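Posting for a labmate who doesn't have an account.
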Amino acid sequence: LRRRPRCPNDVLTSVAACSSRRPQIWCDTRGVSERRIRIERMFEDALEVRDRLAALVDRLDPEAVSGSAARELWAVLDASERLCAAGKTLLARRVAQTHRPETAGAKTAAEHLARKAGTSTGVATDALDTSARLPRRPAVEQALRRGELSAAQAAVVSAAAAADPAAEARLVELAPRVSVPELREECARVK
């Protein structure tokens, strides 16, 4: 059996005993940075959340729940979807930075993300543009990370705030209270 060290310890475990379904990195953990260990744990957490969500959706029987329970569960799933979209938006710029057409099978990072997500290149381009603006738009980024903004809201608010940084906080506060078309109109006035 091939063996790999289990992070963060230096204990060897067999691949069969490893709980990760992630492609394994065969390395000695001595000298591995804390950052690398945090990334490993983050990946494991994401896989666990995905698996638990998949199991929940598999068991979901919409006809068996009351209307109020359906609304509550819908709200929980909507919040989860926002947080997943936030993670994807945050990671999009790194995907673009490391995009290699010869290995990705797509000419651009937008094409690659669109194929993976089953969306249009336009939607993927919006995510990439938003992701690129976030380091300079801290209020938008924090609201996105907290699930207070959807990816669509973050896209229009970050674009408007790029044109008028003084409007960022006001637009972040406004976004959850209005529809996306109303938010677009207000953001267009800011630009």
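Reply:
Got it, the structure tokens are right above this. The longest helix spans residues 67-97.
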